[in-house]
Amino acid sequence: GKKRVIMSAEDVDLAIQRISLQVLERNHAVERLAIVGIHTCGVYVAERIHAFIEKQMKKEVLFGTLDINLYRDDWSLVSQNPVVKTTDLPFDVDNITLVLVDDVIFTGRTIRAAMDAIMDYGRPTSVQLVSLVDRGGRELPIQPDFNGLKTSVLADERIKVLLDQGPSGGRVVIES
Ligand code: 5GP
Ligand code: MG
After folding, report:
1. For a pocket test of ligand 1, which of 41, 76, 78, 156 has the largest count of ligand atoms closer than 8 A to its C-beta?
2. How far does residue 131's CA lie from ligand 1's centre (Å)?
3. Residue 47 belongs to domain spanning
4. Is residue 170 included in any domain, yes or no?
5. Does the residue 44 lie in any domain?
6. Which of 73, 95, 107, 118 could be stapled to 139 by a disulfide with Cβ–Cβ 3.0 to 4.6 Å?
7. How many structural domains are present in the chain?
């Protein structure tokens, strides 16, 4: 099919820097801050944001991950019911400011499942949401607090987020 680049490596880097600065601005005074990435690609985005913020804050910023059922990565099945498979939250969730990070937000069902899983662990002071790409199509009243790029995607198109582990670069492509 056809490919169209919607975020270059520079766009990705700048979006991550901007989001990190916005998260910092909102949370610079909080006692305990955690960045939590949602499985594969959300974790890569979360790692970069975490590294940036920790460097700026000059104090420990906590880090965790959530693994949602793998079929959520299949774009044709994204409206199924997501289930959290494994959680790695190596800190006390009570009274924490927790920033959830995913690569793409669509229906909002993944984030709802992620919030359910987090609430099983305790009561955070606040939960905020970062997405690198908001593709619209929400089925629940869930919106990102911080977003990289908002784009409308046709039903027969899918977004490919090509982010490897590492400090910079990557690409976001629409395939039709
Ligand atoms: P939602 O649960 O909001 O419908 O979908 C969000 C989850 O599905 C995210 O974890 C995201 O990785 C994945 N997802 C949904 N749509 C797309 C898409 O177009 N491209 C990619 N790469 N992932 C998507
Ligand atoms: Mg995903």
Report:
1. 78
2. 10
3. 10-155
4. no
5. yes
6. 107
7. 1
- Our answer on whether the CB atom of 44 is closer than 6 Å to any ligand 1 atom is no
CATH classification at residue 126 = 3.40.50.2020
114 lines ligand 1 (CB under 6 A): no
Partners of 149 in the beta sheet? Answer: 133
- CA–CA separation, 62 and 33 (whole Å): 6
Work out whether strand 84-88 and strand 62-68 pair parallel, antiparallel, or are unpaired.
Answer: antiparallel
Q: Interface pTM (ipTM) of the complex?
A: 0.98
Strand pairing class (171-175; 3-7): antiparallel
163, part of any domain: no
| pLDDT digits (tens), the chain, 176 positions | 789 999 999 999 999 999 999 999 999 999 999 999 998 899 999 999 999 999 999 889 999 999 987 554 555 555 577 888 889 999 999 999 999 999 999 999 999 999 999 999 999 999 999 999 999 999 999 999 999 999 998 878 889 999 877 778 899 999 98
CB of 7 within 8 A of CB of 148? Answer: yes
* Ligand 1 atom closest to residue 38's alpha carbon, by position in its atom list: 10
